[in-house]
Design goal:
Number of helices: 13
Helix content: 40-55%
Largest sheet: 5 strands, parallel
CATH topology of the largest domain: Rossmann fold
CATH class of the largest domain: Alpha Beta
Strand content: 15-25%
CATH architecture of the largest domain: 3-Layer(aba) Sandwich
Number of strands: 11
């Protein structure tokens, strides 16, 4: 990739890592999703900086940020907004909800009812929303980061497959090591404030420019076939009752191109595809009932598929 892209990339990653300490790989994965213009599902335990990461990216990218705490009584209009009658003008005026922002954090998304969850579907997939017969474009860039707790299921509504398919990746942050947690405490004492102060390192225009640069990353036709073979096998394995949709193929290609760009290349290699295969495809498949009790079985099935599908040999030399 060109020098400007690499410089802006490093600015963003360094800025976010200054507050989300010791999580550079996950930060890079989340940023790849932004570059690929794909929404992110962060599935992890409370208190591991899911919200902080979303806020930090918004600040670093210099864009508007909104947060919605999903609860069972949340209504679709609370997300998208509604038309209110103005007595002064005797007309209805549309008051936009938090959905109309650049980065939207959907916190604990599985706590809201399916009707409310579905209010996000059109915005996530089409970058627009239709309200009261009027189609309104979302802000640019528009990015949804949703979170959910993998251990609490009381008063929750599992996301339907149609909505899971709208997330380009499902990621987890994980607990920090003892050394990193000590560093976290030390930095909290030094700054003498609860929240760290970040300054924007990009503008919204520069963030959009970076997204557009991903289209310049080439991917060999043999690697496109490699992606298709992986996704096709999710539909053929007896352990999987429903395989990934073609959207999964597109998502895997987008993430592979973004990872190539993050690593300073303008071409995709097989490792880019293998790196994101599990986080892109595992949440898009439905296992047979006998395997439902195994929490990591979806990831294991994707890994087994990677072991079975032949990796193509590229004609170009990779440094």
């Amino acid at each position: 990739m060109n020098t400007r892209f690499n410089e802006l990339k490093e600015r963003v990653l360094t800025c976010v890592e200054s507050v989300v300490i010791g999580k550079r790989p996950v930060i890079e994965d989340v940023f790849c999703a932004f570059l690929a213009q794909g929404n992110v599902l962060l599935e992890d335990y409370p208190g591991v900086a899911k919200t902080l990461m979303a806020k930090s990216f918004a600040k670093a990218l210099g864009v508007d940020f909104k947060r919605i705490q999903f609860t069972p009584d949340l209504l679709p209009g609370d997300i998208s907004g509604a038309s209110i009658f103005n007595r002064n003008t005797s007309e209805f005026e549309f008051l936009p909800g938090p959905l109309f922002s650049n980065i939207l954090l959907a916190d604990e998304i599985n706590r809201a009812s399916p009707k409310t969850q579905s209010a996000l579907l059109e915005a996530m997939g089409e970058k627009q929303v239709t309200l009261e017969g009027v189609t309104r474009e979302m802000a640019k860039p528009f990015w949804v980061i949703a979170t959910q707790n993998p251990i609490e299921f009381e008063s929750t509504f599992p996301l339907p497959e149609a909505q899971m398919d709208r997330f380009v990746v499902r990621l987890s942050i994980g607990y920090p090591s003892a050394e990193l947690e000590c560093q976290l405490l030390s930095e909290r004492v030094q700054r003498k404030a609860e929240n760290a102060t970040l300054t924007s390192v990009l503008s919204a225009g520069e963030a959009l420019w970076m997204q557009h640069q991903i289209e310049n990353v080439t991917i060999d036709s043999s690697l496109q076939r490699y992606i298709v073979d992986i996704v096709q096998m999710t539909r053929a394995r007896p352990q999987i009752s429903v395989g990934s949709s073609p959207r999964g193929s597109l998502a895997l290609m987008a993430m592979a191109r973004a990872r190539a760009a993050i690593n300073g290349r303008d071409y995709v290699i097989p490792d880019d595809i293998k790196y994101f295969a599990a986080s892109v495809l595992a949440h898009r498949i439905v296992l047979i009932p006998e395997l439902w009790l195994s929490s990591n079985e979806s990831l294991l099935q994707i890994q087994k598929i990677l072991d079975l599908v032949r990796v193509p040999m590229l004609d170009v030399e990779v440094a």
